[in-house]
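Cross-check.
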Amino acid sequence: MNKNKVYLLLGSNLGNRIFFLNRAIERLTESAGDLITKSSVYETQSWGYDDQPYYNQVVEIATELQPLTLLNLIHIIETDLGRKRTSNSYQARTIDIDILFYDVEVINTTDLIVPHRFLHLRKFVLIPLSEIAGNLVHPIFNKTINQLLEDCEDNLEVTKIGFSASEN
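Predicted model, tokenized:
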């Protein structure tokens, strides 16, 4: 079976943020597929509220899982790592994993929208994504990640931390 190239955004702003990023990567590679590459870790002020800053990282995996199966697995990993889902989308969390791209597919269902519908508006997504896939073309906007980053008007500060999650 062919493996699909998937980009995921990992984020954590509760507890030991590096631990949660590392553990999420471990769980993904144990059950979803092979880790191809990962960005550095970036610290970003919280989107939509003032709270503990997020650590964010983008990973690329190769998976045989179909998109909704992958999404279900992600929800299991998030729950296992202590994420509590509420109706408030802007909340502190131990781990958040978003599917940014699934190959070059455009998916629009009630459960999953890919490419992620807000990625072009958020530097905390675009900066780590550009580090590992700057020339990737967004299938809807027909622009590279680097071009989307250049056009992005997000003013939140995104600061590169001097290591990737597995190095600490």
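The chain has one domain: 4-167. The chain has a mean pLDDT of 90. Passed to J.P. for a second look.
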